[in-house]
Amino acid sequence: MKILGISAFYHDSAAAIIQDGVIVAAAQEERFSRIKNDPGFPSKAVEFCLHYSGIRLSELDAIAFYDKPFLKFERLLETYYSFAPSGLGSFLQAMPVWIKEKLFLKKILYRELGKLGPLDKRKVPLLFPEHHLSHAASAYYPSGFEDAAILTLDGVGEWATMSLCRGSGKDITILKQLDFPHSLGLLYSAFTYYCGFAVNSGEYKLMGLAPYGNRDGADCRRMVEIIKTKLVTIKEDGSIFLHQENFGYATGDRMVKDRVWQQLFGFPRRTEDGPLDQRYCDMALAVQEVTEEVVMRLARELKELTGCENLCMAGGVALNCVANGKLDSAELFKQMFIQPAAGDAGGALGAALAAQYIYFGKERRVEFPDAMHGSLLGPEYGETDILPVARKYNYPHRMFSDPAELTTATAKLIADGNIVGWFQGRSEFGPRALGARSILADARSPEMQKKLNLSIKMREGFRPFAPAVLAEEAGKYFELTSSSPYMLLVKEVKRSRQIPVPADFEGRGWADKLYLMKSDIPAVTHVDYSARIQTVDKRTNPLFWQLLRNLEAETGYGVVVNTSFNVRDEPIVNSPEDAFRCFGQTQIDYLVIGNYIFGKKEYIVQSDT
């Protein structure tokens, strides 16, 4: 059975294809279009999935779209009606688009798909699972669990904003659901907006800013109290009630009512390029604490409802790896699986899997440890793709016929303080670089975080970098007892590796906390001694694993800085052309692509060819 899944028309469009329950390919449209969070129809992603799988459109058994547009339209109408006359302007702006286009989504989908090849609508049904079912399916079915509790959290789908489910065999049962406008995801996005970051893409910046807040300071404690008394009521089971008189997202084009929030908190919304002071750090920490409390309560409720030992998570809030790390440490569940493409992109995969197991009722395939294949599900490129681009850019290079020699040479470059662009195999599905399209650097370097942020990534200096570590060695560096293959858990650096901060540390401004040495792996140690960890397994990514082994032999450390191969406001590189362009425009020292190392320093021109 061959099923194509699609997510589109909101943000982060994607396509995925499965065959007899096996995930064959999945990719986000942004990687091809080079438009960050591209919301359009994922024609290039669909084309890639079909080409890679060797399946024609006409051979598909079904096409699944990740939500139900009519339910979403119903929610919009009921919301505007409930808040009338407030939101009239927004209503008049939104309705023509819906009436002319979105209500006829089936027609649009068939039209766009028809551009890619012949398609008989009578033989290939178009299915529409609900948004949160797609999220739940994206997490449960690829997990290695026969039975699991499932928690999905995001901004909003059609009506649902969070769901508590149970997966058993091939079935998913929804146990509880919270509906719009009450949403943990939208609460977090409201603070993303107020702190001057872009909604639906800047939430990870807010999470990275939070540790710069003064946890025990009066301002942070005051903000937590304001959130929990004026903005949101948190119930024992983790459900929440957002006080809509303080928000604008239900019927307007802004997340919050700026004047109301300025009165509540005592300071204005930060503009995108405005100064970042301690107030916004404390605010980020306050909403992060509230988020963690809600997630923990939901997990306890889910445990009580299901009695399951395993937990699956998806939805945009599942990318909050700080909350995930604390949930993991609480040991409510023995094992956790978080969908690496937890946001809307993963909905494409979930829709296809829901069609396979729920609509068609096929027996479920269970793969261990999971069926995501390291999330390395995108395009791959061979020498015939690389060499024409290499000739175009004409950088000095060396070819290695032996992968062991390639990883040894790369490890030596990293150990010598160089920054390396690493482009190998199939690209990652999801927002994280996992050792296929990565920028790598020495975790031991005190200067590396600053250099990477300002000279390579061209982004805010407060943002941390993640470590990739040999799975079997992770416990030597981090307070981690489980695995974290998809960089979705935050844990502390090992206490024995931490360097005490000065006595006046908490009273300092965030900028004064930035570049203090906090451990013997400072480039991957955040201001609160935390790290967003990727454990690298030999079975999943053998070449990347071997590189880390060689780096350990070279330096004594089997850990490396691993950040996405891109610059600010651009998608992660996808093709050799993308990689060479990014390499040339930044201060990356070397590009390792396929069997070649390209350099900007002359001594690399020792060639075997």
Structural domain count: 3
Q: Given the C-alpha coordinates, what overall shape results?
A: globular
CATH topology of the largest domain: DHBP synthase
Strand neighbour order, sheet with most strands: 13-21-20-14-15-19-16-18-17
Count of DSSP-assigned helices: 20
Q: Main β-sheet: number of strands, strand sense, barrel status?
A: 9 strands, mixed
- What is the average per-residue confidence, as pLDDT, rounded to a whole number? 94
Cα(first) to Cα(last) distance is 46 Å
Could you tell me the strand content as a percent range? Answer: 15-25%
Task: Report the count of strand segments.
Answer: 21
CATH architecture of the largest domain: Alpha-Beta Complex
The CATH homologous superfamily of the largest domain is named Carbamoyltransferase, C-terminal domain
CATH classification class of the largest domain? Alpha Beta
Poorly predicted ranges = 605-609
Structural class: alpha/beta
Helix content: 25-40%
Radius of gyration, whole Å:
24 Å
Describe the structure.
With 609 residues, the protein is α/β, with parallel strands linked by helices. It folds into three domains: 1-139 and 342-371, Nucleotidyltransferase, domain 5; 143-338, ATPase, nucleotide binding domain (Nucleotidyltransferase, domain 5); 383-604, DHBP synthase (Alpha-Beta Complex), CATH 3.90.870.20. 37% of the residues lie in helices and 18% in strands. It has 20 helices and 21 strands. The strands form four sheets. The chain has a nine-stranded mixed sheet with strand order 13-21-20-14-15-19-16-18-17, sandwiched between helices. A hairpin with a 2-residue loop joins β7 and β8. α9 (218-231) packs across α11. The radius of gyration is 24 Å and the shape is globular. It starts with a strand and ends in a 10-residue tail after the last strand.
